[in-house]
Amino acid sequence: MQELPLSKVYQWLEPGPVVLLTTARGGRRNVMTMSWHMMVEFTPPLVACVVSQGDYSFAALRATRECVIAIPTVDLAAKVVAVGNCSGRDVDKFGTIGLSPLPAQHVAAPLIAECLANLECRVVETRLVNRYDLFVLEVVKAWTDPARTERRTIHHRGYGTFVVDGETITLKSKMP
């Protein structure tokens, strides 16, 4: 074994795909790239995510207590990185980057038409926001686009490096 710098630990634990988180506040919509999230519960579906106080989306998420988590596929990787490399304080990311907002059913934040799936979410727990910027979200409506042929997601490994989903294997499980 070789020692691993603690600053690189997250690169080994990133569990899920890179997602796009949308918010809307005061008539202004925004989107950010996010990879620090995890499932917390199956029923109802709860997702914990970190949205830093330095992110423009933080104030909107905290104030409105709702968002959309959109799940892009590998063909959107360049747009996902472009979203993450600018701030909604300065840029209309939807218009500049070329993402198509769609109305959600239960939240003001928009769905993203180009994404494989969109999860409408409401904040249900904020006790860890002040200390860790950690929000717990309940998914209240989920959408997918069955017409999308590309289904491979991307996973952040740090410093501009991503892994693309590959082969799927199915093993016997006792989970429902």
Based on the model shown, name its key terms.
176 residues, alpha+beta, two-stranded antiparallel sheet
Strand content: 35-45%
Number of strands: 11
Distance between the termini: 38 Å
Helix proportion of residues, in percent?
A: 10-25%
> Which outline best applies?
globular
* Total domain count: 1
Describe the structure.
This protein is of the alpha+beta class and 176 residues long. The chain has one domain (6-164): Electron Transport, Fmn-binding Protein, Chain A (Pnp Oxidase, Chain A). It has helices at 10-13, 56-64, 77-84, 93-97, 129-132, and strands at residues 19-25, 28-34, 37-41, 46-50, 66-71, 101-102, 111-112, 117-125, 134-144, 154-158, 161-164. A seven-stranded antiparallel β-sheet has the order 2-1-5-8-9-4-3. Strands 6-7 form a two-stranded antiparallel sheet. The longest helix is centred in the middle third of the chain and has 9 residues, at 56-64. The radius of gyration is 16 Å and the shape is globular. It starts with 9 loop residues before the first helix and ends in a 12-residue tail after the last strand. The model has no long low-confidence stretch (mean pLDDT 92). InterPro entries: Flavin_Rdtase-like_dom, Flavoredoxin, Split_barrel_FMN-bd. Its cofactor is FMN. Belongs to the flavoredoxin family. Residues 13-161 form the Flavin reductase like domain. Keywords: Flavoprotein.
